[in-house]
Amino acid sequence: MDNEFMKKTLLVTGATSGIGKATALRFAQAGASIAAVGRNEEALSQLEKELNSWGAQCLTIRADLSREEEARHAPDQPAVAVRTHAKSSAVISCEARQHRQCL
Hints:
The longest helix is centred in the middle third of the chain and has 13 residues, at about 40-55. The chain has a four-stranded parallel beta sheet with strand order 3-2-1-4, sandwiched between helices.
């Protein structure tokens, strides 16, 4: 998968931990630019530093996609990354969804 995704931009939700973070890291290793979406600003900053240290381009977007208002505005920021870096190639959704209801 090395350099297989050069000149591609991937939007990865849930990128601050778990499968989302692993996905962002792996695709960056394969040459992709990453638009990383997550709720934890500190974790996003750490991810950005790590990807930048590898020479990967990364745009971080702090958003809680379980909140309608934040989810509605989150796509505005990746559009900037897409125009700046390359054509968007994929959206990879790894965010956890929590349902707050009583059974």
